Amino acid sequence: MSANIVEYKCIKEALEWLNTKLYQAVLHSQELYSGQAINDPYQGLYIHPLEIELLLSHGLSNPLIYASKDNLEEELKTLYFFSYLNKLLSLSHREISLVLIALAPEIDLTYEKLYAYLQNDITRKRPTLDFALNLLCTSPEEKQSLYSSFNNKGILQEWHILELSPPSHQSNAPFLAYEMRLSQSFLNWLLGGNIIGNHLKSFVSFTETVDSLTYLPVEEKLKQSLLNLLQKEQIINLYFYQSHGYGQEILAGAIANHTGQNLLSVNLHKLLLCGGDIESIGQRIFLICRLYNALLYLDGLDELLSPEGIRSYHLLFSHLKTYQGRVIISGKKFWNPPTGSTGWVAFPCSLPDARLRLSYWREKLATVDHRLSSEELETLADRFQLTHEQIDRAVHTARNQTLCQGNDDPITLETLFVAARS
Fold it and tell me: Is the pTM of this model over 0.85?
């Protein structure tokens, strides 16, 4: 599996930029609180009367500790951390700044002291939404704009990159007092850890993709149809169904290999058994696919079509409508997407298992002269993972080779081996 993990030196470079902004904010804060309040040894533990006067004179909606924003966009363009996340996830520079503010205490606990100082409260060691707005915005209008993106569950929350929660000691805190934390999945990705985590590992996994779609033993008509669909600019989602045989995941892996992607496999039966929040789980899975450039493969749709899974089925597809990556789903029966779900193409397909291949070999060899034993037929079926069409072609080739040798001898195992390899 390949993934472009953000190197620590790039994170360190971004943190140095944040340090500069925090230093400017400290200077601004000291200037703002100069006088009796700043010399009070109990500052942050109680509210000083001078602080009330200061807040009223400053303007209650104005940012209190903003850092200098001169040429902010130009500064951030030079930082790889910002340009990389902007390109990978289409995050704005302001959104990436929020990610960085939440990331800092996960790398160095010194930031907890800085945040507590700047928030004028020793119990607030984690950055709150209000703190981030004050640090990044220079006007009430900017604050309101950024606040609205959170209140409407913007991309950082929707994709489970950033999580907001009330302080532990104040469950009914106003939204501005909510603390910002990076989701564990996103944090693990940034720092090179296991992004899937314990909450997903029972039904989510990366699957190794080693097969080439060009040489995969599937019917030529199916192969060509898939290649044509993959060349289209519009993303077409695929549904593979078959009641016997195997190979839907192998085929999905070959498609991922063809498109230069990783393959993230989700077992829908196990997902249903875990009883988790399908909305939250789905968004975490989508985030993993975005971060690792992974094709999403959902195995076992039939489980979600049962009475026990139908609610999860509708929730899943309501979120798939907004997902911009390619999705492949497998099941046993033909399936029509729910109303409003467009861009799906269904294919009846699988790779024949050894039992079916043995049946195909017997069927085709029954039309020609041969002396192969049951054990030799089983060897053919086990050795070559061929489709019905390819077995037909191999028998035809072996028969022609025998005739070209100028005799009517029965087809031999060696001749079939040569034909099957070709």
Answer: no
